[in-house]
Design goal:
368 residues; mainly alpha; 14 helices; membrane; FUSC family protein
């Protein structure tokens, strides 16, 4: 039973990264405590930036480079999302672009896909936090996000020093890195990837547009539900798609119930810090589990200092709309793909007997 469970989840055993976990815990603790004592909403973005940077392991060869990429691109994504929150067409185009970017990065392997989902989460948080607090400056949000990430980078350099490693590791050659990425890209057929990318573009664009036009409070519950549901491979079968969607919705409902039951920022901070450490220490290697784990942690960090937990139905409605939207778009694209494949399959079945008859005539003709 244990073996079958591991095969279903794709779970891989690995050593817990306690060094990276302590960096994540200390990096998120400082802005969280400052935000708790001061009440300033800007420390929320510093906390999100710290957690975004802490996803990279500073002891790995490419860890520091990945950390800087996560900080820079995450800050730009959060600022762009906040800026586009009041512009419907800009929000539509921006979410469509990030859907395409996520699908494109997934083509180059799991680690590139993890980078893409992190950027999509930052974009959703930037759009959803608009109007929640009296903090309406996208440039300041990007700067605070980067400051939180740089605080984690400073801790990461200290961790490398404690292990006796170089402050900046040797970088691989650019051409060898491109060869590895091309090898990953060739594994996915281009037609299959195009349908995959089109599904992401439509679902992400519709999610961002719905949040913008309806002016939904805490709209990141909807857009994050869209992106998270899309990662569950909904195009295999209807039963699997429905199970995955219900699983995502159930996880969101449990999270909302926990937040509504606690509804106390100091208690939320006390629970959140050990959870961040454990989540980073036992970070999932499987892509689907990584997406769920990362999304839940980002949501908890964004809601730790929230003062409106007495309205849980808003979050639940947003999550339900997001899951339903992602499921509907995925099933629609799956149906269109089957309709496109039917004429081609009929042509192949019709041409197969003709080719067989021609071969028989060729075989019989010398005897005539």
């Amino acid at each position: 039973m244990k073996r079958s469970f591991r095969q279903i989840l794709g779970w891989q055993r690995g050593r817990p990264a306690w060094g990276a976990a302590m960096v994540a815990g200390l990096g998120c603790a400082l802005p969280l405590l400052l935000g708790l004592f001061s009440g300033h909403p800007g420390f929320l973005w510093a906390t999100v930036g710290a957690f975004q940077a802490a996803k990279a392991n500073p002891l790995h060869r490419l860890g520091m480079l990945r950390m800087l990429l996560l900080i820079a691109l995450g800050a730009c994504s959060a600022g762009l999302g906040f800026w586009a929150a009041t512009l419907p067409m800009v929000s539509l185009g921006l979410f469509a672009f990030y859907g395409l970017l996520l699908a494109w990065l997934q083509r180059y392997g799991t680690e590139a896909g993890k980078l893409g989902i992190g950027l999509a989460i930052c974009l959703c948080l930037g759009q959803g936090q608009s109007g929640v607090a009296d903090f309406n400056n996208p440039q300041a949000i990007a700067v605070l996000f980067a400051l939180g990430g740089l605080w984690v980078t400073l801790l990461a350099f200290g961790l490398r020093g404690l292990h006796g490693l170089r402050m900046w590791p040797y970088m691989p050659r650019f051409m060898s890195l491109m060869k590895v990425l091309r090898r990953h890209a060739r594994r996915t057929p281009i037609r299959q990837w195009r349908m995959h990318a089109l599904t992401y573009i439509l679902a992400a664009a519709l999610g961002g547009l719905v949040v913008n036009l309806a002016q939904l409070p805490r709209g990141y519950w909807l857009t994050l539900a869209v992106f998270t549901t899309l990662q569950m491979n909904l195009q295999r079968s209807f039963a699997r798609a429905l199970q995955a969607s219900l699983g995502v919705l159930g996880a969101a409902a449990v999270l909302i119930y926990m937040g509504h039951s606690l509804a106390d920022p100091p208690l939320m901070v006390m629970i959140m810090l050990p959870l961040v450490i454990l989540s980073r220490a036992f970070q999932a290697h499987h892509y689907g589990l990584f997406v769920l784990q990362t999304t839940l942690c980002f949501l908890l960090l964004a809601e730790t200092l929230a003062q409106d937990w007495y309205l849980p139905e808003i979050r639940l409605i947003n999550a339900t709309i997001g899951v339903g939207l992602a499921l509907s778009v995925s099933l629609l694209m799956t149906g269109l793909l089957r309709l496109i494949r039917r004429p081609s399959s009929r042509k192949t079945t019709a041409t197969a007997p003709a080719t067989n008859d021609a071969r028989k005539d060729d075989e019989i003709s010398p005897l005539r």
